[in-house]
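$ ./design --mode recover --in tokens.txt
reading tokens...
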């Protein structure tokens, strides 16, 4: 249990309190001062007095340079297959986008002995009875040191999805950057209307035009439309949704142009984007 005497954690660095069920950076709370820690401890102690239990992960806030992950699979015999290395872009502590790491970065990991550590971690996972997909979150610190284990996700992750998208895009000699748009809609907008607008703006990925946004998971866009109805005090209905997609482009400047055109489409449809 946390208590006010745990100020010793702050002697070394700020730290994170992480919800053990948090996904993609959600449920993380940065503790950077004694005052913040005391407020959290007071709140948790009150919950415990009401009969609730405390279960958190504590993690030091590291001076990171690069977030990345290793996607691997462990079969029933314990054999490990490393599928890909993915670099992550985060907004705060939450996932923003992900793309396959450059060859030079993968070679850096190889020469640093990272993959030997991955195989040792996989062997330990198999020893305790796990087999299947693993996403190993890692990072490179500002001083160049590799932290091989930040989190171990015993499941398929965004990195797996992006890996298989890139396998599809290889036929066009392209790679994508998996991302999402967090949206607030003031009226019902059909997904087909979004696709039509994207095609008119020439940012919809097509086989004969393999640059733009490859839409994914259409149901996440309007799944909440029937759940959020206007109350008597609302001037108009609203609901939230997400649009997942892979931004397919050869250069960063073109990616910016694609995103700007996508934002123009949202503005035309009176859709707010939060991320």
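writing sequence...
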């Amino acid at each position: 249990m946390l208590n006010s005497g745990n100020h010793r954690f702050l002697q070394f660095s700020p730290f994170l309190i992480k919800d053990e069920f948090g996904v993609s950076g959600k449920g993380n709370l940065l503790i950077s001062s004694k005052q913040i820690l005391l407020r959290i401890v007071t709140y948790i102690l009150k919950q415990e007095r009401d009969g609730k239990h405390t279960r958190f992960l504590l993690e030091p806030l590291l001076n990171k340079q690069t977030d990345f992950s290793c996607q691997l699979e462990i079969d029933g015999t314990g054999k490990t297959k490393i599928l890909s290395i993915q670099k992550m872009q985060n907004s705060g502590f939450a996932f923003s986008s992900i793309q396959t790491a450059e060859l030079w970065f993968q070679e850096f990991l190889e020469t640093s002995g990272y993959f030997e550590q991955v195989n040792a971690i996989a062997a330990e996972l198999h020893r305790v009875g796990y087999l299947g997909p693993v996403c190993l979150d890692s990072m490179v610190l500002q001083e160049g040191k590799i932290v091989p284990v930040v989190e171990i996700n015993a499941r398929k992750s965004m990195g797996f999805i992006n890996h298989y998208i890139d396998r599809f895009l290889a036929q066009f000699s392209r790679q994508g950057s998996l991302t999402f748009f967090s949206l607030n809609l003031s009226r019902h907008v059909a997904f087909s209307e979004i696709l039509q607008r994207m095609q008119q703006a020439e940012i919809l990925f097509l086989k004969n035009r393999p640059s733009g946004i490859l839409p994914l998971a259409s149901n996440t866009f309007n799944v909440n439309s029937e759940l959020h109805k206007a109350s008597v005090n609302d001037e108009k209905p609203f609901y939230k949704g997400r649009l997942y997609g892979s931004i397919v482009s050869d250069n960063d400047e073109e990616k910016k142009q694609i995103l700007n055109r996508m934002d123009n489409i949202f503005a035309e449809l009176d859709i707010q984007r939060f991320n």
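exit 0
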